[in-house]
Design goal:
Elements: H1 3-60
C-alpha cells in the first residue's frame, strides 16, 4: 500500500467517525427538544394554577 491509500483510508475513517458523532448529537438534540417542550408545557400549567390561586385569594380577602 502506498501513502495515498493510507491517507484515503484515514480520511474515510475520520469521515465515518464524524458522521457517527453527528448522529449522536442529532439524537441528543431531539431528546433535549422533547424535554424542553415537556417542561415548557408543565410550566404553563403551573403558571395557570398559580394565577388561579392568586385570584381565589384576592376574592377571599375582605
Amino acid at each position: 500500500m502506498d501513502s495515498t491509500t493510507n491517507t484515503r483510508e484515514d480520511l474515510v475513517r475520520k469521515i465515518l467517525q464524524t458522521q457517527e458523532q453527528l448522529r449522536h448529537l442529532l439524537a441528543k438534540i431531539d431528546t433535549v427538544k422533547s424535554e424542553h417542550h415537556k417542561i415548557h408545557t408543565e410550566n404553563q400549567v403551573l403558571e395557570k394554577y398559580m394565577d388561579n390561586l392568586m385570584s381565589t385569594k384576592e376574592m377571599m380577602e375582605p
